[in-house]
Design a protein that fits this description.
Helices cover 20% and strands 28% of the residues. By secondary structure, it is an alpha+beta fold. It has 2 domains: 42 residues, no CATH class; 156 residues, Nucleoside Triphosphate Pyrophosphohydrolase (Alpha-Beta Complex), CATH 3.90.79.10. Strands 4, 5, 6, 7, 8, 9 and 10 form a 7-stranded mixed β-sheet that branches. It has a 3-stranded antiparallel β-sheet with strand order 1-2-3, with no helix packed on it. A hairpin with a 5-residue loop joins strand 4 and strand 5. Helix 3 crosses helix 4. The longest helix has 17 residues.
Length: 224
Amino acid sequence: MPNSGTLSFPKLALELVEDLSPEDKGFLRLVRRKYRISYPDGSLSAPFVYDAIDRAAVDAVVIAAHFVDAHGARCVFLRSALRPPLTMRDSARTPLPDEARDGALWELPAGLVEPSERGLEGVTGAARRELREEMGFSVPLESLRPLGPSTFPAPGFVAERHFFFEVEVDPSTREEPTLDGSALERFGVVVDIRLDQALELCRDGVIEDSKTELALRRLAERLA
């Protein structure tokens, strides 16, 4: 068992046996590979096939834009997001009774890091761009501050890594978001809400996006 707060991962080695991925030039690419595992005792598993997905821009940024209102309360900006996989979610396959799904989520602004955006400056630049596109704020690069370590939101099927940022903004400087041309972003709504209320909505299951809840909790912890 780990001692003194340390974690000791078992010595497992993943070996690629064969790449069976189909040719596909879509936004998402199916990655189908045959692996086997080398165990600590020197034995090998039988070969097995594992499916995952990949894309050219695999990582993403998440930005918590916040300000203090006239009453001294810390507020954050959220944006409405329509997510087709949720709209098409099959309620007959849910293990628990599920409410009707319309694909609607409230999220912090987020977006992909382009392959050319390298290093901390590149990732921060991606956060600045996405904040402008989705929220309408133009901020200096140095005003964006990393908000804790990056995380893997769905490591079972995609290697996407989320990089978190926070930035204090002036609500009076917000302009119309430039958007990215996606049909899903048209008529999206930007709202501001008190940070404590946003966290309460997370606890109540109204805000269901996990990256948003994580960033909000980190922001509240930093500002405490």
